[in-house]
Design goal:
heterodimer; A: ten-stranded mixed β-sheet; 9 helices; B: 251 residues; alpha/beta; six-stranded mixed β-sheet; 39% helix
Chain lengths: 441, 251
């Protein structure tokens, strides 16, 4: 298929999606979607000629016809899967193939000091909040896949927590894929507004009910007001044949403490974009990440920390374990704007290559326009440390066991930082089992 | 127990060991002394199975088995323990988990059942006392952030827990102040038994005031040029290694 032909088809899918769109969606969303679609058409799919997409070839997406009107196959869920991460949590919103499922979601998804609304239910009462996010530049930025999400988003959630409130229980957002016969693309959108001095923990998990091919293109937008404390985890465990392109955009106001952790284990072609804008003074922004890939998978993280105001601190630590013929990409942008004096930014990316055929492209990208700042970055790519391995073996631990232990130690540096027990413990277990199940060849 | 015959070894094409002969019986403590670069640490590392050395000639037998054909872990299972000159820090692996895995691997080889958490804890408590090791260090990653003295004590502590047949101490005294040296030496002395042998590699005689050896060997330029009883260490301390080197020239 030619690109032009593809765009034509996409346009007709778009037009028909507008005509049979959800009755709950108000009129004012129409121009939003139309604008998004036009923006996508003007830009087209990103190509490997673009610096930010050099290693990420999307041609497989437009060469195959994905339907942007996925069918939620609820009937397949006759048996509720409690082994799926997050499905035991009381406060959970479950989306199946991009659409909200009340049946699978927690019975009480709205603790008293918080509003969690499926997007389709939020439109009528929350126009202002939703418009804030839809009109934000994040939607209309360089990355055309964000526009695609806005044009086709099927469902999502609006979460807002009032000033001064704190939510003890983490909120789980479970995105479950049940791949259908035909190729489908899911476009969920999550909007989060955290009031002044509020506290919130969010867990976003992307899981597959069974394996198969699909394309998930979720977008999350956060607006954290002064003094809010936000801990956000994203767990990506898509099907091995799936494509996952995700977008996270966070607007942070003064004195916000923000932590975003990306845990990327599944999928075939995976892209995680995380963009933060530090718009006030005294913000502490932490980005952690762990990615693992084997076979011929590609996992790509592009992060951006934009220091716009003085006296903010950012820490970034991303670690990757790459095996067999897999490829990992890490690009970490740190901007320090003219006004952002006294910035303290630290970025680290460490990669463990377990095979001769594994590849890593790592690129720190610091752009500093202020003079009184401290910025450090470091990237490493290496094999297991032979000295450490010999030390373990000299004590009687076998070579295989010792390797597992060292890889586990490397990964647990990130997993150990997860503050939510109900996430950290099952992940520890799964990652450990993963290594035991012959990840090391 | 251990028999080294005409051992030659190279590293990066430099010949380090040029024909070492040594026989160690059960229960004996042998000190190996020598100037820097004489091959003492190379010998210790080859016995433990460290990669990177090429043995070009000679043989090593441990209780009748060809030691050089065994992997490092197989040597550990048979009761060889190397106390490292520079113990490695392993962030992310807790001391407890590491040591329990090691001990149970060795027990498995000995066809003993694995120790459960409670028995292991009791053993750790007992052995930690031996080298006055702060038990809270057990919850930390292996050697991570340990002081120089704590690392060396941790080596002896591990040795006590794993209970080897042959303990090889590679310059365990280096970097220790006199108090730490005494604690480490007391730990080693407590482990001495008619069934257990030691090789004590050291540059200085000082350590041998505390761990009194049965035999002293002087390694110079890859060969044992002189062997004797503990008095030899005092002579060396007094006269320096040049004395031995000159003697060697006379021979």
């Amino acid at each position: 298929m030619q690109k032009e032909e593809y765009l034509d088809r996409l346009r007709s899918q778009f037009d028909s999606s507008l005509s049979d769109r959800d009755v709950t969606e108000p009129e004012w969303m129409l121009p939003v979607r139309e604008r998004a679609m036009r923006n996508f058409e003007a830009k087209g799919f990103p190509t490997t000629r673009m610096e930010d997409w050099r290693y990420f070839n999307l041609s497989s997406l437009w060469q195959r016809s994905y339907s942007f009107d996925p069918i939620p196959n609820f009937n397949e869920l006759a048996v509720k899967r409690n082994d799926i991460l997050g499905m035991n949590s009381a406060c959970r919103l479950v989306f199946v193939n991009g659409r909200f499922s009340r049946e699978l979601s927690g019975k009480n998804i709205t603790p008293r000091n918080l509003s969690v609304l499926p997007l389709t239910e939020a439109y009528s009462s929350q126009k202002e909040r939703i418009s804030f996010f839809m009109d934000n530049n994040a939607v209309w930025g360089e990355n055309s896949l964000r526009s695609l999400n806005a044009a086709f988003m099927q469902d999502g959630a609006l979460i807002f927590i009032p000033d001064g409130e704190s939510v003890e229980e983490p909120i789980w957002l479970v995105f479950m894929a049940i791949p259908a016969e035909r190729l489908e693309s899911y476009q969920p959108r999550i909007l989060i507004e955290a009031g002044e001095n509020s506290r919130l923990t969010l867990i976003e998990s992307h899981v597959a009910y069974k394996s198969g091919e699909y394309w998930s293109n979720p977008m999350v937008q956060l607006r954290a007001k002064q003094g809010a404390v936000i801990d956000h985890y994203k767990v990506q465990m898509e099907s091995p044949q799936a494509t996952h392109t995700s977008h996270y955009h966070a607007l942070l106001d003064r004195d916000v403490q923000f932590t975003a952790t990306s845990l990327s284990f599944g999928g075939g072609l995976v892209r995680n974009d995380i963009q933060t804008e530090l718009q006030g003074e005294g913000i502490e922004c932490t980005l952690n990440g762990l990615y693992m890939a084997d076979e011929r998978r590609l996992v790509d993280h592009h992060t951006s920390i934009d220091h716009q105001m003085p006296r903010c601190v950012s820490h970034e630590l991303y670690k990757g374990i790459i095996n067999e013929h897999a490829t990992a990409v890490f690009n970490g942008k740190v901007y320090v704007r003219e006004d952002a004096q006294k910035t303290d930014a630290k970025q680290t990316n460490q990669n463990l290559l377990l095979s001769e055929d594994a590849t890593v492209y790592t690129k720190p990208q610091l752009e500093i326009f202020a003079d009184d700042v401290r910025c450090t970055h470091g990237a490493t790519v290496g094999q297991l440390n032979e000295e450490e391995l010999f030390y373990l073996r000299s004590r009687g631990i076998s070579k295989e066991e010792g390797k597992k232990l060292l890889i586990w130690a490397f990964a647990s540096d990130i997993i150990g930082r997860i503050k939510v027990d109900t996430l950290r413990e099952p992940l520890q277990e799964r990652v450990f089992q993963h290594f035991n199940a012959g990840y090391i060849k | 127990m251990l028999e080294i015959k005409n051992l030659h070894a190279k590293i990066d094409n430099n010949e380090i060991l040029k024909g070492v002969n040594l026989r160690i019986n059960k229960g004996e403590v042998h000190a190996i002394m020598g100037p820097n670069g004489s091959g003492k640490s190379t010998l210790a590392n080859i016995l433990a199975g460290r990669e990177g050395y090429e043995v070009t000639e000679g043989e090593v037998f441990f209780n009748g088995e060809n030691l050089l054909e065994l992997s490092p872990e197989e040597r550990a299972w048979r009761g060889i323990f190397l106390a490292f000159q520079y113990p490695v820090e392993i962030p992310g692996v807790s001391n407890t988990y590491f040591l329990k895995t090691a001990l149970n691997s060795i027990r498995k080889y000995r066809e003993e059942p694995p120790l459960d958490a409670l028995d292991f804890l009791a053993l750790v408590k007992e052995k930690a006392r031996l080298v006055e090791l702060d038990q809270t260090l057990m919850n930390r990653p292996v050697n991570d952030g340990f002081s120089g003295g704590e690392k060396k004590r941790n080596e002896i502590f591990q040795m006590a827990v794993l209970s080897p047949n042959l303990g090889i101490l590679d310059e365990t005294d280096s970097g220790l102040d006199i108090d730490a040296l005494r604690i480490v030496a007391n730990g080693v002395n407590a482990l001495r038994s008619p069934e257990r042998s030691f090789i004590v590699v050291t540059h200085y005689q000082r350590l041998l005031n505390y761990i009194v050896p049965d035999f002293v060997h002087v390694l110079v330029d890859g060969r044992i040029v002189m062997s004797g009883e503990k008095d030899l260490a005092f002579q060396l301390e007094e006269k320096g290694y040049s004395w031995v080197e000159n003697q060697d020239a006379l021979v």
